[in-house]
Task: structure prediction
Amino acid sequence: MTSSEAGDRRRVRQAALSVGMWVAASSAIVVALGVTVMVAVILLRARVESDEHGTDFPGHHGGGDDLVVDVDRLLPWVIGLGILGVIVLSAIAWFAARRAVRPLGEALRLQRNFVADASHELRTPLTTLTSRIQIAQHRFARGGDVAGALEQLRSDADAMNDTLTDLLMAAEGTADTTSLTRVGDAVNAAVARLQPLADDSGVTLEVVSTDRAVRMPLPTLTRVLIAVIDNAIQHSPGGPP
Result:
């Protein structure tokens, strides 16, 4: 079991325990209030009758006042309190169900966001990979050397793997936020991956060296720069060379 799976199970257990305790406490309060109201109604509706004849029966000691409750007057209160209790407990169950499925809804939202981000982030590397494959095919058809193209394809595959790993780490909240990355290294990596797309669009990419560094993993910074440069290529005037 991975750490992320263990964390998910722990969160689900905590959510279930929280919902169970909340339902138990709420139900206990509702039942206690119902009993209190019922006792108050009985005391208010009851009347005292004197036992003049001293009638003796099991549980009765005779010679005193008796507390008499008319069932026909008490029954509407019993029915009304029962209906009200069902309504309140139904509302509690509905609210508890919403709280119980909240972690599932959050997990589905994160999953949708990850799929959307992965689709967006991998589209450009896949397009670049397709362009390099076409270049390698043309060279091979003409009897040219494809060793360099194959090396570039291997580099692009490694870059896609780094991008996917970076996306997974960001989704799990385990991304590295302490390491320093030279901006120039990320720029060079982004330009190298987008060069085939720039060539197809007739756009020239020029790199200006810089010694600045940022506190961000190299794959993450490269992904950000690829998104910016790719957008610039798509909206730059030019045409096929």
Remarks:
- The two ends are 53 Å apart (CA to CA).
- Residues 54-61 have pLDDT under 50 and may be disordered.
